[in-house]
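Appendix B, example 12.
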Amino acid sequence: MRNIENVVPIYEKITLTLEEAAAYSNIGQNKLSSLLNNPRCPFVLFVGRKKLVKRKEFERFISENIEI
């Protein structure tokens, strides 16, 4: 069982999983996955084969775009 004291709120994390980013932004996981697959995606971070979302860049991307 995880210790509740070790849980970091999403808004304080530097990187997010696909599931966390979807919950945080209310954008579907399939749409986020297709954005992360774009070679010019400014908010993807590869950790081996795993893709993480850089939260601050993701927030900037959302605020600068009117349509995705």
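The two ends are 38 Å apart (CA to CA). The mean pLDDT is 92.
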